[in-house]
Amino acid sequence: MASTLQPVLLSNRCNDSKSPYVRHHANDPTAWQLWSPDTLELARTSNRLLLLSIGYSACHWCHVMQTESFQDAGVAKLLNEKFIPIKVDREERPDIDRQYMDFLQATTGGGGWPLNVFVTPDLEPIFGGTYWPGPKSERLRPGAGFEDILKKVAEAWEEQEQSIRNSGKKIAAQLRDFAAEGSLGGRQAGDVIGEGEEDNLELDLLEESYQHYKTRFDEEYGGFGGAPKFPTPTHLGQLLRLGSFGTEVTEVVGDDEVEDARRMALKTLEAMFKGGIKDQVGHGLSRYSVNREWGLPHFEKMLYDNAQLLPLYVDAWRITQKPIFLEAVNDIATYLSSPPMVSELGGIHASEDADSQISHENHEKREGAFYVYTYQEIMQILGPDELETCTRYWGIKEKGNIDQRYDAEGELRGQNTLCVQFETSELAKELGIAAEQIKEHIASSQQKLIEYRNRTRPRPALDDKIVTAWNGLAISGLAKASTALHSASPEASSTYLNTVINAATCIKTRLYDSSNHTLRRVYREGPGDIHGFADDYAFLIGGLLDLYEATFDSNWLAWADDLQQSQIKQFWDPARHAFFSTPEHQIDILVRTKDGMDNAEPSVNGVSASNLFRLGSMLNDAKYEKLSRQTVAAFEVEIGQHPGLFSGMMSSIVAAKLGCRGLMVVGVGQEAEAAVRKYREGVFPTMTIIRIGNGAQDEWLKGRNDLLADTDGDREMVQLCEGGVCKLLDATSIEALR
To answer: Which residues form the Spermatogenesis-associated protein 20-like TRX domain (predicted)?
Structure first.
């Protein structure tokens, strides 16, 4: 059956969006529409395919495709006459991004952004890809450019509409089946998980998860696999903390394996912080490295990456006390606590772009322009002694140190990324000068280089959205940094805690509706229209639990409890358990999925299971503990098949088997203070802490946890509860806590 396209007159609507990414396309000749009921209805009435283009502000290849294709008159004409082109910010609508990314990965084996998908008027995907070269691109190959693809798809729709619709319906059905496979735990649709079915997952899954990463570990450079190389914070965190679960887990996994897991994580964390993925003269880490050595990043800096890496470096410092990890903690925490990342409202912004102008005079944008240096620039900026030290220390070369294999655009020719090549003691020996002098040269050079770039180069564009979920991750990381540094660095600890409180307050006042206990996803120029997804609730709840442990103000715990009940109401599956990512009656998605595997962000259900166990322990709420067990059990078969993909679930598997340990600190005294300090300076993945008395804001907590109602906050006591048994701890047993 041939298709009959109904004529429509489209105009670019990007300025109707609050998203910086979408607004960036407002001057494209492509008549972009927004994802809305009106647009979807227009696709149906005009009988046109949608060209759904999904990206984000900091995405380099999104900018490339805009320049090459979406600003090209011929491409725009095709899109406007034959399709309904829709631009979506994946950070605003992760649900839309997720379902079409699942389609792309299932059909091509790969994914990424920009994500471009052709979709029927019934929202069923038929064909997709990521970057396609534009008509004048140097990467264009005959018949494989974006313009060619548009012509072929338009022709196919006009000549074979019914066949394409049938194909779309089959694909949509397969996506639903695929989603069900990942959330039924091996059960059939309609099956209900019975009592006692929540405890089938065994501790040996932790050993299998370790083996998964052992076989993929890069012994030379750290990390997993080859290029490109990503930080994978959730997986690194599981390896790092594997030895902190206690003797029962160590006996199952093995002493050598636990030590090796920690070694892999620490080697990777150190390699990243020394590599080009780290801004060596400023603060923060970039998204990922395009080469195996962590030397050449894609230069965008994302809030969610830095927010997740921060608590890893906190625990690495707690475990090893190595100065490099303390430096990393302060570096990332400073990045998240300072402009431009911190908004005037207190919330933390989403990202900084990879691309920026070459200079204030030259408005051409290039990837990494803000961060890289030529040798000639370095010579002009640094003194002779600094030059000798720093060219060796950071691997700076006269013709640049960037392998042209990884510079497809040729934008980085002759440039240097800064990557630490030596320990200062080693370089001191090689150059025959004191190690302290080496450190002085590095510090003074960093200051000169950052002053130079701030003076001569425009900073990359800022995506100033405040995303609830990502602020939750940042609240968690900064709260943990604050608690860890409470004794060692009180001033820094206070700075980070103030940032956390301001961010949490911003979310509560601007993105939370107390009348119906719900969240909004994004704030920019006011709260957005999009309601919070399950990750917004889960990540924020986790952050609030860490904020409570940093302040012992139970008002934060009360809000976490309130949000947890709201998350259950909106997203819980009462029949087969665990949390859907989207609410039940959302009409503009094909598939309602459950997120269990960890990717660039931790899985919703992994974080939720942990939150529920923690809340159950802190509030003495058996319902929460049961829901946590059921959440993990919902992925039983999938975890058993691929335990390495479910790192975020591992601590909850341990908690399900061995229980959460609850530390209760009451009153004032040496033992009380020792217990708090021990908890804050150690790594206890399945332990919680509550405090009564000593000025703690404990009124709500004493009312919510019925065991605490009659607790005398003036009488010093330290108590540890596990397995339904509570025991008093003295100074010796507090010190022995592991």
So the answer is: 12-175
- Between helix 647-658 and helix 204-214 the angle, nearest 10°, is 160
Question: Residue with structure tokens 């139970």?
Answer: 554
Ordered DSSP codes for 126-158 = EEEES----TT-TT--TT-SHHHHHHHHHHHHH
Query: Which two structure tokens, joined as six digits, stand for 61?
Result: 């290849």
Q: Which helix (H) or strand (E) holds 398?
A: none
Tell me the mean pLDDT in the region 277-305: 96
Enclosing H/E stretch for 262 = helix 255-274
Let me know whether 38 and 152 are in one domain.
yes
Q: How far is CA 529 from CA 32, 33, 90, 525, 704, in A?
A: 19, 16, 15, 11, 33
Percent of the chain with pLDDT over 90: 87
Please tell me the distance from the alpha carbon of residue 395 to that of residue 418, in angstroms, as a whole number. Answer: 7
- The rounded distance, in Å, linking the Cα atoms of 469 and 490 is 28
Contacts of 503 (CB under 8 A, 6+ apart): 346, 347, 348, 471, 474, 475, 478
Going by pLDDT thresholds of 50, 70 and 90, the confidence category of residue 199 is low
**Rounded CA separation 93/444 (Å):** 44
Final residue of a structural domain among 435, 456, 477? 456
Kindly state whether residue 581 falls inside one of the protein's structural domains.
Answer: yes
In a domain, 190, yes or no: no
pLDDT, one tens digit per residue, over 92-134 is 999 999 999 989 998 888 889 999 999 999 999 999 999 999 9
pLDDT at res. 188:
47
Question: Using one digit for the tens of pLDDT, what is the confidence trace for 594-636?
Answer: 999 999 999 999 999 999 999 999 999 999 999 999 999 999 9
Question: DSSP alpha helices (H): ranges in 354-407?
Answer: 375-381, 384-393
Q: What is the pLDDT of residues 545-554, one digit of tens each?
A: 999 999 999 9
Are residues 238 and 174 both part of a single domain? no
Closest CA to 164 of 181, 175, 152: 152
DSSP character at residue 623: H
Q: Which two tokens stand for residue 297?
A: 């990043």
User: Range of 208's domain?
Assistant: 203-360+462-659
Query: Among 638, 578, 639, which residue's Cα sits nearest to residue 204?
Result: 639
CATH number reported for the structural domain that contains residue 611 in this entry: 1.50.10.10
Is the preceding omega at residue 228 within 30 degrees of 0, hence cis?
Answer: yes
Residues 678, 654 share a domain: no
In a domain, 144, yes or no: yes
Cα-Cα-Cα-Cα torsion 394, 396, 400, 401, nearest 10 degrees, comes to -40
What is the pairing mode between strands 466-467 and 512-513?
unpaired
189 pLDDT exceeds 50? no
Q: Note whether 301 and 474 are within 8 A (CB).
A: no
- Is there a single domain that holds both residue 563 and residue 426? no
Q: Which two tokens stand for residue 101?
A: 């990314």
- Burial environment of residue 353 by CB neighbours within 10 A (0 to 12, 13 to 18, 19 or more): buried
* 629 bridge partner residues: none
> What pLDDT band is residue 181 in, cutting at 50, 70 and 90?
low
- In order, the DSSP letters of 455-498 are HHSPPPPEE--EEHHHHHHHHHHHHHHHHHTTTT-HHHHHHHHH
Helix (H/G/I), strand (E/B), else coil: 662: strand
Element (H, E) at 523: strand 522-523
3-state secondary structure of 447: helix
Distance CA 331, CA 282 (A): 8
Query: How confident is the model at residue 235, as a pLDDT?
Result: 97
pLDDT for position 551: 97
pLDDT of residue 146: 95
pLDDT number for residue 512:
98
Q: Report the CATH number at residue 406.
A: 1.10.10
Instruction: Please name the residue that has the structure tokens 């180069």.
Output: 457
Residue type, 235: H
**How many domains does one find in the chain?**
4
What would the two tokens of residue 371 be?
């961060």
Closest CA to 534 of 19, 98, 18: 98
